[in-house]
Amino acid sequence: MAAFSRFSGRFIGLSGLALLPLLARAQPGNPLRRLLRQDTVLAPVLHEARAHRLQILYTQINRDAQGQPHFRTYRLRVRPREYFYPASSIKLPTAALALEKLRALSAAIPELTPESPWRIDSAFAGQTRVLRDTSSATGRASLAQYVRKMLLVSDNDAYNRLYEFVGPKALNEGIRRHGWHHTVLRHRLSVGDQDPGARHTNPISIYADTALQRPLYVQPAASFEGKWPSVRQHGRRIGRAYFQGSQRVEEPLDFSTKNTTSLPDLQNVLRAVLFPESVPASQRLALDSADLGLLRRYLSMAPRASNRPRYSPAAYPDNYAKFLLAGPLPTGVQIFNKIGQAYGFLIDNAYIRNPDQHVELLLSAVVYVNSDGVLNDDQYEYDAIGLPFLRRLGEVVYAHEVKRAAKSRK
């Protein structure tokens, strides 16, 4: 596998470059605190960083004379053991692990591809069936179509279907295998999924034809009977009250049975997709160039650029799933990212590049905006504080990188 060349958009080898330890002590010259302090949008959030559960992970990418990337990481309040709800940010590792599973199956079933048509049935309370997918060119569901929808507009049903395909046991085994040690996936999204339903997965059949006449692979309903993986994290009881339906409960909301991750894990997943040879060989994704190309394409594509699925630009503007550098992008800028938004948490995990300016960086951040301390009341300060903060963070760090690149070329 290979990594992006910032100059041509092609990929180049990295000859065994090891993954830098993202949890090591911050290096001298960390610019993050200074950049935030001197900005009127960023400084107030920095001043209340603990209340906002703020974490920022910023990795500079420097190319040597051979074009090989070298990574230098800076941190601001990066605390892998401080809980934040990951929301949709965990869809990228799920997509990668689903493609890994299909790649392994195709070794014995060569006809099996990400575009092969799916049929999903139900076998447990709360499960739903899928026979058709009108968003696809074939009218049928497929792994590739779920990946597209998940990365283009953060579709929750698409994530749920890949959760069902891989299964919670294999998902969490894959997470451990790739070294994402603070991540646990234990439920579907937006359907109230919890035990025992979260342990049960739907029957899935994958076919050679859109008429669904010739099955290539049949996966029966399954259940996970083991113990859920756990990670040591604090702060899982959040807020002072929450709504359960229309009823207000006067105690913190307990997130101990929900998905979890860390900012270093999220950035390492992105590196595994974009810079595979910067990851230790034992932890690399078992994906071929077509699999990686699918992920990369839809991590960076604007919804309006997609033909199938098709999205209305009015409903899904270019910045629909872009928090860092949201809005009209500077000329030449391309962003590969995955966001998350729920319960007052906003997350963006991004690779930003501008070949014309010789700029490329990884920037990942989480911020919590819920001043009244009540969850599920839809009174979060996303528009007033969270989204302006992340947009300005991207602008400020990108401007810093432009200046740094210009200085290095002198």
TrEMBL record:
Kindly state a single biological-process term from the GO annotations of this entry: beta-lactam antibiotic catabolic process
Q: Which InterPro entries match?
A: Beta-lactam/transpept-like, Beta-lactam_cat
Q: Name one Pfam family in it.
A: Beta-lactamase2
Domain Beta-lactamase class A catalytic stretches: 76-357
Tell me one GO molecular function of this protein.
beta-lactamase activity
Question: Per its record, how is this protein called by name?
Answer: Beta-lactamase class A catalytic domain-containing protein
**Which organism does this record belong to?**
Hymenobacter fodinae
